[in-house]
Specification:
Blueprint (H helix, E strand, L loop, with lengths): L7 E5 L4 H12 L4 H14 L20 E7 L5 E7 L5 H8 L7 E3 H10 L10 H17 L10 E6 L5 E7 L20 E4 L3 E7 L1 H4 L4 H10 L4 H19 L6 E7 L4 E5 L5 E6 L2 E11 L2 E6 L2 H12 L5
Parallel strand pairs: 3-4
Antiparallel strand pairs: 1-5, 1-11, 2-3, 2-6, 5-6, 7-8, 8-9, 9-10, 11-12, 12-13
The structure holds N-hydroxy-L-asparagine (SD4).
EC number: 3.5.1.26
Pfam family, one: Asparaginase_2
Protein name: N(4)-(Beta-N-acetylglucosaminyl)-L-asparaginase
Length: 322
């Protein structure tokens, strides 16, 4: 998809739609890419009905919410990340603050929590009653029906391009549902869950972190754009090449989904699954949700219609029946 734009923002999943809308307003008014990306992710972290990011995120197998987040400034290449943090209201704000540190910019667990507390970042109990009910229900279903606890995923990754051609990317997730305590996926790992280089573009991923990390997928997409591919070509070729390589060499491949944007505001998306959605805003296009469909080694993209959007809202706010 080609659009000329002097600013733009794209994010994984429908859940980023509202945040992308607010980020677009900031970008339109001359705001920076880093502010826009962080703000959009914070909106998702704060919304209790998104069960895979921030407040309301699903817990690990012991019933505790452990969160990962990262931020990268594509101009200075500064990056900050946290992994496995508990009881922090906005992991993305801590990641952004860590990106301003020369050393110790990727912190995990208790060390990260203590640093955040010292710096005055808000503490909050991140497990909601709703997320706890989901956990109990899924735990029982998993035991009763032998379902994989690891299916289902939704990391938010937001890319922003500002009017000064600066790019940033921000991610946040509660990680794989029912993960082991201490497990970390791709989302806070540079080059895997995210990468940004303002001279080229940025990419961010969602899916099975264990497999996304095997291909450093976000760095790979940015490299392919640097070598002259359009964002859509870079996204599709990187995702399907990685899937093929995993099948040939590892014997299986988990879900792999990505979005990317170059520094002209052209964007792309690719996925190995059927129900991947993403959100975009550019000067030519108010915040809009798109749905994808895989066809061979192509990812087809169409706008989400009102019916789909309404059904989504009903689904995510529906009562969790135990
Ligand atoms: C992870 N990639 O922790 C994350 C999970 C995810 O969409 O994307 N969910 O592996």
């Amino acid at each position: 998809m080609t659009l000329s734009a002097n600013w733009g923002t794209i994010a994984t999943w429908r859940m980023a739609w509202e945040g992308i809308g607010e980020a677009a307003e900031r970008l339109q008014q001359g705001g920076s890419a880093s502010d826009a990306a962080v703000h959009a992710v914070k909106c998702v972290e704060d919304y209790p009905f998104y069960k895979s990011v921030g407040f309301g995120g699903l817990p690990n197998e012991k019933g505790e919410v452990e969160l990962d987040a990262a931020f990268m400034d594509g101009t200075s290449l500064a990056l900050g990340a946290v992994a496995g943090v508990r009881n922090i209201a906005n992991p993305i704000l801590v990641a952004k603050a860590l990106s301003e540190e020369r050393f110790n910019s990727f912190m995990v667990g208790q060390g990260a929590e203590a640093w955040a507390k010292d710096r005055g970042f808000e503490s909050k109990t991140m497990l909601t009653e709703r997320a706890h009910n989901h956990y109990l229900k899924r735990k029982r279903e998993t035991l009763d029906r032998g379902l994989s606890p690891y299916t289902g995923h939704d990391t938010v990754g937001v890319i922003a391009l500002d009017g000064q051609q600066r790019m940033s990317v921000a991610t946040s997730t509660s990680g794989l549902f029912m993960k082991r305590p201490g497990r970390v996926g791709d989302s806070p790992v540079s080059g895997s869950g995210f990468y940004a280089d303002s001279e080229v573009g940025a990419a961010t991923a969602t899916g099975l972190g264990e497999d996304l990390m095997k291909g450093c997928i976000s760095y790979e997409i940015v490299s392919r754009m640097a070598r002259g591919m359009s964002p859509q070509q870079a996204a599709e070729s990187a995702v399907y090449d990685l899937e093929a390589k995993l099948m040939a060499r590892y014997g299986r491949a988990g879900d792999l989904s990505v979005v990317c944007m170059n520094n002209r505001g052209e964007y792309g998306a690719a996925t190995t699954i059927d129900n991947f959605s993403f959100s975009v805003a550019t000067p030519a296009q108010p915040a809009q949700v798109f749905l994808t469909a895989r066809e061979g080694n192509r990812t087809l993209i169409r706008p989400a219609d009102r019916e789909w959007l309404d059904a989504y809202q009903r689904r995510i706010t529906a009562e969790v029946i135990q």
